[in-house]
Amino acid sequence: MTQTEEKTQATGTPMVPIEKIVSLSKRRGFVYPNSEIYGGVSGIYDFGPLGVELRNNIRRYWWWSMVQTNDNVVGIEGSIITHPRVWEASGHIENFVDRLVDCKNCKRRFRQDHLPEENLLKNKCPVCGGELTEPRTFNLMMETFIGVVEGERMKTYLRGEACQNIYLDYDNVLKSSRMQIPFGICQIGKAFRNEVTPGNFLFRQREFEQWDLQFFVHPSEMQKWFDYWKQFRFEWYKGIINHKDRLRFRAHGPDELAHYAKQAFDIEYQTVLGWMEWEGIHWRQDWDLSRHSQFSGQDLSYTDPETKERYIPWIVETSGGVDRTFLNLLLDAYEEEPDPTGKESRTVLRLHPWLAPVKVAVLPLQKNKEELVTTARDIHKKLRRLMVSQYDDIANIGRRYRRQDEIGTPFCVTVDFQTLDDKTVTVRERDHMTQVRLAIDELPMYLLERVMWK
Ligand code: GAP
Asked: CA-CA distance, 363 to 413, in Å (whole number)?
């Protein structure tokens, strides 16, 4: 079966091959390979004009639903570089390792934990059947140095997981805000890993952006909050995708738990790559605050203001990322369907209107009629103060609709000859291509109601 022919078991809807997303991303300015003119760097990408809009929307929506609308959650923004002891305390120096094997015949490299069971048992390459080498261990932390004088420079690391800043700032947040347990701290920020097998486009990169909630609780309430946030995050993803049947939980087996987790679930999304992790929900217990107390000598225990009980808070972590969300949303939204004219097919990105990079395109029916152009430009100027709007008068109207469909613009406003008579325009909706006629004055409210998250 080719990738294009693969279907989800539940619905039979075709799943889009990654190559189509890579191609669209480059062609339309979502994602570019980093340092491309020098041959690129594996596992590192840049984001173009549409990519940055989509990323900003994804980040803002996450922040809005996690921080702004939860009274018991606050946010921070920590630095990428920290004291090197942080990574000893966190266990990353000792435990953040991948075991690698190489094929002696075809020279391909594999993570040992990614090998199919049969190949693992027989020590055979899954591609050519050649013999595999003994596993070698690699630490994933990226090293860097602070200071300029040789010999006095301090070796440290670019953070391997963004959440460590939250534990480092936990006590400061407690003292500077009026938070009491149970409460959470959120952060979005870059993380870096020397992934030995980066790949699948944005799925496994060496530089990527994580989002975390660390929720601090009394040990007796751990199960309740773990269940709460696990479900909350699942519903969050479900709310922004079309193919709801491609989302599921998967519990980690005891042999795959990270060194800090006593229990973990992945929220997985199904693509042509199979079921893959989108976000991790981790029962971190008291690992982090106990370790940082021990390594720093600072007491990070909490005293309950009412009962005076003193304890190290336990932590529920929900940890996902902008990049996998970006990739999964494109995979979820991409569709090729026959054009109603029957002459050609259209590519449409059915992105949620809340997240679409461009919210509205304003199009004069004809470019050579000055009044149409002036009116369309005026409408665009008013709308762009409220949302991302594009003005477009190049090519016939059908082509312009297609261009907007392909980048996921939920609404196109067309200024035609009737507009000049009665100050109304047509608003075309992306998914069903239906049109309504509206007064120009009604446009801002009509669009805002549909593109602002709620
Ligand atoms: N603090 C816990 C932690 O870092 P993780 O499961 O290693 O847990 C959490 O990472 C999330 O970060 C993943 O669910 C994924 O969304 C994202 N992520 C991890 N490694 C990534 C990579 N190499 N490229 C892109 N995203 C990655």
From this structure: 6
Query: In testing the pocket of ligand 1, which one of 210, 257, 271, 291 has its CB within 8 Å of the most ligand atoms?
Result: 210
Over the chain (454 residues), what is each successive 10-residue block's mean pLDDT? 39 84 98 96 97 98 98 98 96 89 93 90 94 91 91 93 97 95 98 92 97 98 98 98 97 89 95 96 96 97 96 98 98 90 86 98 96 98 98 95 97 98 98 97 98 92
Structure-token pair, residue 8: 């989800």
Indicate if ligand 1 lies below 6 Å from the C-beta of 332: no
Residues 172 and 74 sit within 8 Å (Cβ to Cβ): no
CA of 109 to the centre of ligand 1 (A): 21
Neighbours of 426 (CB within 10 A): 17
pTM above 0.90, yes or no: yes
| Residues 104/201, Cβ–Cβ less than 8 Å | no
The residue to mutate among 319, 325, 327, 329, having the most atoms of ligand 1 within 8 angstroms of its beta carbon, is: 319
210 CB under 6 A from ligand 1?
yes
In the reported structure, the alpha carbon of residue 454 is separated from the centroid of ligand 1 by a whole-number distance in angstroms of 27
Amino acid at 239: G
